[in-house]
Amino acid sequence: MSATTPHDLGASRTLWELIARRAALTPDAPVLLDESDRRVTFGAFATRAERTAAGLYGLGVRPGSRVCWQLPTRIETVVLCAALARIGAVQSPVIPIYRDREVGHAVQRADARFLITPGPWRGFDHTAMARRLARRLPEPPQLLSVYDRLPDGDPATLPPPPADGREVRWIYWTSGTTSAPKGVLHSDRSLIAGGSCLAHALRMRSDDVGSIAFPYAHIGGLDYLVMLLLYGFPALLLERFALPGALDAYRRHGVTLAGGSTAFYSLFLAQQRQLPPEERLVPTLRLLAGGGAPKPPELYHEVVRELGCQLTHGYGMTEAPMITMGSPLDTPEQLATTEGRPPAEMEIRIVDGEVRLRGEAVCQGYADPDQTVAAFDEQGFFRTGDLGRLTAAGHLVLTGRLKDIIIRKGENISAKEIEELLYQHPGIHDAAVIGLPDAERGERVCAVVEQPAGCSTLTLAEVTTFLRGAGLAVHKLPEQLEVVPALPRNEALRKVLKYELRERFAGS
């Protein structure tokens, strides 16, 4: 009998099937590591997840139950996620930095019957927020606080695991072009397809050590877990990514793969530049990889030259977590100037400059059926709203965005959402929110406002205080404020010309 390969495992119908098959193959190999040197093997991961599933089942979670969870990146979160997959629940992950507005919208639109939070975490009481939200809903969800203590039960009480990997079992949230986040519908198979494509493009090995330094609730978290399960290597989990603090854990665990987005590359470079040229920041690091934000070509060359490792950058979105990815086998020119190539399973068309997609890793649509209809063309291709072109070798070059979003540290931020809140400020007559190039963040949020006659000039601190009070998540707050006599507009429909504002304030 031939040995099982990552490609064989990638054919698993469901996430739980993939977990169980990996646990049977390499039960004693590590899969999850953390800064406290805790270590969980593939076998223990599957066992613990099944016991947690039984505990959740005892609390009323059933196949098809809709469960919204907002938890930090830690071992317990990944176990809980696997436990819900064992039951066959519909999961709706929410990034921990989101607050009342976003979480309330997710719970309501997902029709969640359970809301799982970490309780007080990093100075914010998530349980108190959950109770506030529950009081506003006609059918409030059951609240569960989970941080370091997971529910426990006897796996014998569980029904059989799910068998249909194409059912919608995931609702992820993205800002897109509208003020309210859109619920993106995924199946186990679409997420396994995305993770498989990522792992195969990066040429991972069983002796690698990865790292998840971004929110596991991001769709990239499940992508990464699939990669670990396919290739049988572990990842270091970081609740909070901060340098130089995290470097000790990277070095101690011998991390070989790091990254997340363009902002991560810049942070690693900044730390490397504080060391003598001959001293490597993380001696075991062989690859930085990520996506979620534009990558300047010169950044690729700086990483290779100064960090002494390879850099592969890709293109993905919540609706299709892995669209293209640079490969270590690509040429330096291709890695520096493109987003990589699509896998064989991803079909890309460029229609009137727009990138359109079709493949198993593409979502099934949105929680709002009207948004689903608008998102796909007549041939079933998903409209990304991004502009690009394909090279002769099949690599994708992105040239702009149709969607009015800002990508800050790999997270999509809706300009319209912030603008609508700014309009409520008595000292603002009109506002335009734009993304400006930023070496550390990819893009920074800049609010450009007109004020009514006779008002005292606003300060950035006053604006951010107002937006915080309106419930806007911290990572969406403007980092730059510009007050102008009048916003530039076109002559026909008086639409604000944001490109003029970006040109004007890019160097500010």
Automatic annotation (TrEMBL):
Specify the domain of life of the species encoding this protein.
Bacteria
AMP-binding enzyme C-terminal domain segment(s): 417-490
PROSITE patterns membership? AMP_BINDING
The name under which this protein is listed is: AMP-binding protein
The organism encoding this protein is: Streptantibioticus ferralitis
Question: What UniProt keywords apply to this chain's record, in alphabetical order?
Answer: Ligase
**Which InterPro entries is this protein grouped with?**
AMP-bd_C, AMP-bd_C_sf, AMP-binding_CS, AMP-dep_synth/lig_dom, ANL_N_sf
Q: Which family would the database say this protein is a member of?
A: Belongs to the ATP-dependent AMP-binding enzyme family.
**Boundaries of every AMP-dependent synthetase/ligase domain copy:** 20-366
